[in-house]
Design a protein that fits this description.
The chain has five helices and no strands. The protein has 115 residues and is mainly alpha-helical. The protein has one domain. The radius of gyration is 19 Å and the shape is elongated.
């Protein structure tokens, strides 16, 4: 779980670095820091949601292959799937929020001069 959160945070941080000029322009044109924060977190969480959906479908599809290897639990345990999805979504939210918060502190003039 930690490795996945680190990966999500790294991808979002890289995206923020790539979009520094865009963020600077938005802030220079009057975007509030809340708007920038919401934009970046929403983009990251859309990717996380898509990944969770693909992972859920893959786990349900592969559960038949693993059913013979599991002893004492069912191959499709709804509580385990729900808790895993919930915990990963919360961890991923914070992994998206930290780089987004950093992006709100971008100085528009420095961002425009950087290119």
């Amino acid at each position: 779980m930690g490795l996945a959160a680190l990966g999500v945070g790294s991808v979002v941080a890289f995206s923020v670095v790539q979009r520094t000029r865009e963020i600077g322009i938005r802030m220079a044109l009057g975007a509030k820091s809340q708007d920038v924060l919401r934009l970046i977190v929403a983009h990251g969480m859309r990717l996380v949601g898509l990944g969770l959906l693909i992972g859920l479908l893959a786990s349900l599809g592969l559960s038949r292959l693993l059913a013979s290897q599991l002893f004492g639990i069912s191959a499709i345990d709804p509580l385990t799937l729900a808790v895993t999805i919930f915990v990963f979504a919360i961890v991923s939210f914070f992994a998206c929020w930290l780089p987004a918060r950093r992006a709100t502190k971008v100085n528009p003039i420095e961002a425009l001069r950087a290119e």
